[in-house]
Amino acid sequence: MHSNISIFVPHVGCPHKCAFCDQNAITGKEKLPHKEDVEKVCLQALDRVDDITDTEIAFFGGSFTAIPRGYMLELLTAAHKYVGEGRFKGIRISTRPDCIDEEILDILKEYGVTSIELGAQSMSDEVLTANERGHSAEDVRQASRLIREYGFELGLQMMIGLYKSGHQQEDETFDEIMRIHPDTVRIYPVVILNNTRLAELLASGEYKPMSFDEVLMLSARALGAFTEAGIRVIKCGLHASEVVEQDMVGGFYHPAFRELCEGLLYRQRMETELDKAEKDGRLSENKELVFAVKKGCMSKAVGQKRVNIEYFKKTGLRVKIVERANIGLYEVRLLDDVEAAHSCSIYNMKQIKRSKVCGCFYCGKIFAPDEVSGWINEGCGTALCPYCGIDSVIGDASGYPITEGFMRKMHERWF
Length: 415
Hints:
alpha/beta, 17 strands, elongated
């Protein structure tokens, strides 16, 4: 799994102070790192990182190519010693789109830089001007093209909810980033920090931010679409920081923002699956709907504090989430009765004991629950059929019909 050795370079040398920027608050750092600091961090990381071949030394926190040239070369020289030949994969930097040209890229290539992230923030010139970015959307396009031509991995950072940005401007940014198709994206909902121009505009009433739900919806859409397009979303939401929490006066900060986006994304896709099933007449006869998601993603689909389960419960629907290995990230599949019932044959001791009648979908026998005497999977218990000994037993407490016809359908599907 990819990882970064992060070294923060606070706001220094950047030609602009953007309306949203208080770099010391964002990075939580004030001291400038120097050669010795870089070497110390790299040496410590060599002993701690599991896979150094997929790890980059990352200079974050400022516009790296806008800092004084001598200082930039000092940092690069120190980091370059730890790149290649059984050491780290490369160096990652973040910078402004208008601080990229052929000369800079030649230098970065020479010193082992492998990835460049651009703070695009918006692809609307109106929004960029209003937030005092000092560059244009065309600067982002040109810098992205150059970075690609030089063979660097390209990353773009976008901000959602900036001053003067509405749904039209957010769509413009989203569409442009999809066209550029960077390797990675960071999605940052705007956090309004004290001592910034945005804080002044908020206090005066001139800046009226979107609602949290709107920003969450836009972020979730971007997260899902970028992922489907093969663009890795390496960050969604500002990283948790006591400094940010203390200095923020507004905006859209949440320490688990990505989890909120993922939960909303899964809920929307469950609703889409449900709508399709209703139109096609495929709704389950059972009172419980079973959705399948990618293995390891059940908690994302359930949502924070089981919000998605509770959401459907309020509409009169009982929802169960199961995992399947053949489903992609953020994909959802509504299982039909025959497929969904299969999950009731595993760890089902409590279900069998609550049932009035049981059936085996291997041999087709129908029998009373007290006939079950064999179990596997100690603790939770999985029932074995008293007639054939196969772990293919379900009870009517599962909500599925225990009939010869339904057992036959399950047998045809699973055997």
